[in-house]
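Input/output pair, single chain:
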Amino acid sequence: MISRRRLYLFLLSFMFTACKPEIYSFSANPGIITDRDSVHLNWSIRGKPELTFHQKKIDYFGGDSLQLLQFTLVAVKGRSRSTPRILELNVLPLLYRDLFVLPVSGRHGDTLVAVGIRDSLYKDFKIESMTSVNGRKILVERGMYQTMLYDSVTKSKTFRGLDYSGEWKFESLLTPQEKENPKLIPAQFVIAVFIKPKKP
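Output:
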């Protein structure tokens, strides 16, 4: 049987916990933006929201920099404050060079295969062009389309206008050096995909 004192302490603890400010969720839509976009922040909290905003710069390809938006949300109730929740968003230029990495997942004879998905985070972007990154010759498949990437200089525009998010497949032949020494076989393939927002 529970004593009155223990029951009182339990109820007091429960009431204190129930009144404590808390952040249940904090998200942004869309998850990636350009400097022409607006972003909608959504949250579910117990207490009064307190939002702060910071803008930073991070290194980008070719010595340029990207903007990084950092939002910090705190739930406040009386003198109590919740643990801060931080949300970061990259602000992409209108033509963005994204490094797309897929791990090698299989091998058919002398051909290495990598299969994967570019997630829906990029659903608002379309492909402009692409290149190989390390000079490796890579066959790229996207739906019904395919193109060969030869080096980091020559850009392929075969997929121009296609959605960036979705299923992808990379294939590449083993080099003579990799055939002789399996330790040289790469664990992943990397390509550079230049993308633009779908909306003008």
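Helices lie at 4-19, 176-180. The chain has a mean pLDDT of 86.
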